[in-house]
Amino acid sequence: MTLPPKPWPTGHCEDIEPLIRRILAPNGSPFTFTGTQTYLIGTQEELVVLDPGPDHADHVDALIAAIGQARVVAVVCTHTHRDHSPAAKLLSSHFDAPIIGCAALTIQSDEPRADAPFDQDYAPDRVLEDGDSITGDGWTLTAVSTPGHTSNHLCYALEESGALFTGDHVMGWSTSVVAPPDGNMADYLASLDKLYQRDDRIYYPAHGPAITKPRQLVRGMMGHRRQRERQILRLLAEEPRVLPEMVPLMYKGLKEQLYPAAGQSVTAHLLDLERRGEVIRSGDLWQTTS
């Protein structure tokens, strides 16, 4: 999806539907589309702040102005990438509200660490498990565990409206990057299937437009990942290859600045195929087992 023309409506509080408002952070990039979308969920009297976004003064000021005198029941995060959770600490302090939602991220791996993009200062007062809820006057927000993009990723269902807030698991402009060692392709596909089994009316992602045909999109996303998997197996069946050789062959026309992100998802596929015994590696060289 191409970027819409500027100016983007950063700092503007948009009424999306009853119980839902949205404010765009000024952090647009090739990796975040027009920026991170923070959602105010609830009423003018009582609400939660979902994905408070980056620690950017203009964005935090816009959130504080939009919240006004409402009681903030909680500041809620889908996951702890630095474009999603750093402002939680500031809003929690300003409104004397707890930080509730995903767990803090702890990577247990011997692989090179990939947590530089994560918010190391995130400290939740309460961690939600799958099916746990936060309630207010006339609204209920329920956590849906969706690991894959990150191991701590949660989506949230607004029970009264049929809306699902999908963070980075399902986005309105691009497929999600799955970056090992924390990102896991098998978990990501299982989480997509979990959402496919649900009957949510609409998805509100952290980046990009709302998704009005969610099951159709999720089905296409699962098919896209299986297509990438088959593409990898075809390339390796021709000859053993190293990752930097595979990315430009798989992503025709992709800007080189995005090769590292694409390479992370290819690595996630390779690790999943290795776990299933379909590929093996010798140093940096990958090949099929058949």
Descriptive account of the structure:
Residues 35-207 form the Metallo-beta-lactamase domain. This protein is α/β, with parallel strands linked by helices and 290 residues long. It has a seven-stranded mixed sheet with strand order 1-2-3-4-5-6-7, with helices on one face. A hairpin with an 8-residue loop joins β9 and β10. The chain has helices at residues 57-67, 87-95, 185-196, 214-238, 243-250, 259-275, and strands at residues 13-17, 20-24, 37-42, 46-50, 71-77, 99-101, 126-127, 133-136, 139-145, 154-158, 163-167, 202-205, 241-242, 279-282, 285-288.
Total separate domains = 2
Number of helices: 6
- Proportion of beta-strand residues: 15-25%
Biggest sheet, strands in spatial order? 1-2-3-4-5-6-7
Could you tell me how far the N terminus lies from the C terminus, measured between alpha carbons in angstroms?
Answer: 37 Å
Relative helix content: 25-40%
Provide the CATH top-level class of the largest domain. Answer: Alpha Beta
| CATH overall fold name of the largest domain | Metallo-beta-lactamase, Chain A
Provide mean pLDDT, rounded: 94
Keywords: Hydrolase
Protein name: MBL fold metallo-hydrolase
Pfam families: Lactamase_B, WHD_BLACT
InterPro entries: LACTB2_WH, Metallo-B-lactamas, RibonucZ/Hydroxyglut_hydro, Sec-metab_biosynth-thioest, WH-like_DNA-bd_sf
